[in-house]
Specification:
This protein is of the alpha+beta class. It has two domains: about 5-115, D-amino Acid Aminotransferase, Chain A, domain 1; about 125-280, D-amino Acid Aminotransferase, Chain A, domain 2, CATH 3.20.10. It has seven helices and 15 strands. The two termini are about 30 Å apart. Bound molecules: pyridoxal-5'-phosphate (PLP).
Length: about 280
């Protein structure tokens, strides 16, 4: 299937150019984005994604795009793509601007793209030598400045994996290039709190909420409780790992740095719980 594209106020053909040469998103990665899963022609957790998009745009200092405008662009794309769609991306940039980091005063650019795509049910991860900066000016924001993730994911793919795990500058476990990380230890599934510098993932939040309601032992911990070296224990068989993201939902990790890992019982239950709850409500 081809991509469905909305830009500049209407649906566009894939071959049409839609971004100006000086768009600040293109120039310096001055933008924010969201990726949603699409099931049965509907975007999962769209309201949460739109809220995060708005909050991230504000935090980056971008002029706001009215949520109604984004919603109608998303609706146009979903209508045009139908049931074959698997994922949808919403991008908002600062719009045309100067060639350097200084920002112009243009109206923001909004682009919505959807296409096929489903992630695997399990994940294979590697460690990478680079750190997330929990003191970064854009910490926790889903900006289009993703080159760091591109490089780390390429390293993972070259090693036969599909995700890379970052430490932060304090050598605490942080997150993946496009996922949050959970560590299964002694019958509990633990994820570093947002102080680690990780993105406030929507799937992470949903899993924490649903697990709390269901009595499944899943919780946030102080990042100091999950040093990056805990991954040595995991590869030695003393624990398990799982990832969450909009396209993966909950994906148990089956390989770490090429060492096969057993799927943890809580990770498996978390995946099942997420599947059940997501099927009940497309916009939780
Ligand atoms: C860096 C990063 N962390 C975590 C996530 C997971 O977030 P969500 O569950 O909202 O998709 C993503 C999603 O792409 C991400 O890019």
């Amino acid at each position: 299937m081809t991509l469905v594209i909305w830009a500049g106020g209407c649906l566009r053909d894939e071959s049409e150019p839609v971004i100006g040469a000086t768009d600040h998103g293109l120039m310096v990665g001055d933008g924010v984005f969201e990726t949603c899963e699409v099931t049965g022609g509907r975007a999962f957790a769209l309201t949460r994604h739109l809220q995060r998009l708005e909050a991230n745009a504000r935090a980056l200092g971008l002029a706001p795009v009215p949520t109604d405008e984004v919603r109608s662009a998303v609706a146009a794309v979903l209508d045009a793509g139908g049931a074959a769609l698997g994922r949808l991306r919403i991008t908002v940039t600062a719009g045309p601007g100067p060639m350097g980091s200084g920002r112009g005063d243009s109206a923001p650019t909004l682009v919505v793209v959807a296409g096929p795509g489903r992630a695997a049910a399990t994940a294979r991860v590697v460690r990478v030598p680079w750190a997330r900066n929990e003191r970064s000016a854009i910490v926790g924001l889903k900006t289009t400045s993703y080159a760091e993730n591109v490089v780390a994911l390429a390293r993972a793919v070259a090693a036969g994996a599909d995700e890379a795990l970052f430490a932060n500058t304090r050598d605490e476990l942080c997150e993946g290039t496009g996922s949050n990380v959970f560590v299964e230890l002694d019958g509990e599934l633990l994820t570093p709190s947002l102080e680690s510098g990780c993105l406030a993932g929507i799937s992470r939040a949903l899993l924490l909420e649903w697990a709390a309601q269901d009595g499944l032992p899943v919780r946030e911990v102080d990042p100091a409780h999950l040093p990056y070296r805990i991954l040595d224990d995991i590869s030695a068989g003393r624990g398990a790992l799982a990832l969450t993201s909009s396209t993966r939902h909950v994906a148990p990790v089956v390989s770490l740095d090429g060492v096969e890992l057993a799927v943890g019982a809580v990770s498996r239950a978390a995946r099942e719980l997420f599947r059940e709850r997501a099927a009940l409500d497309v916009d939780p």
